[in-house]
Amino acid sequence: MFYPPAPVQVYIAPGVTDMRKAINGLSLLVSDQLELNPFSGSLFAFCNRKRDMVKILYWDRNGFCLWQKRLEKDRFRWPDTPEDVLTVQGYELAWLLVGLSLDQQTAHKELHYEIAA
N or C: where does the chain have the smaller number of CB atoms within 10 Å of the terminal CB? Predict the structure, then answer.
């Protein structure tokens, strides 16, 4: 299982991505189409048309890493987003990778507190 590092930015690429692309093609897609920096250390996730394959590209200190998961059965519940890239948290990416959707109705709400002076 792929567990993103705790404080990392995760970008979900909209639409369908040609999974024949490897590191060079995906890094060009990040910079040209998503208009983001592929060297930032952020995770960039892509899904194919059949929604049975995900690739995650990221820069790690001195080189690119490419992680891939292909389902033998079932499909990913990849979000249908408009043309803009979708920014999610690491735990939301983990949800997608285990077959859940991003709009979990039963997830605990994030709480924000302030210290009284």
Answer: C
**For residues 65 and 60, what is the distance between their CA atoms, to the nearest angstrom?**
7
Report the alpha-carbon angle 96-98-101, nearest 5: 35
Using alpha carbons, select from 63, 81, 74 the residue that is nearest to residue 99: 74
**pLDDT for 19:** 95
- Identify the sign of the CA torsion 107, 110, 76, 6: negative
DSSP result, 20-85:
T--HHHHHHHHHHTS---TTSS-EEEEE-TTS-EEEEEEEETTEEEEEEEE-SSS--------SSP
Buried (b) or exposed (e) across 17-39, using 16+ Cβ within 10 A? bebebeeeebbebbeeeeebebe
Question: Does residue 62 carry a pLDDT above 60?
Answer: yes
Query: Among 79, 80, 57, 59, which Cα is nearest to 68's?
Result: 57
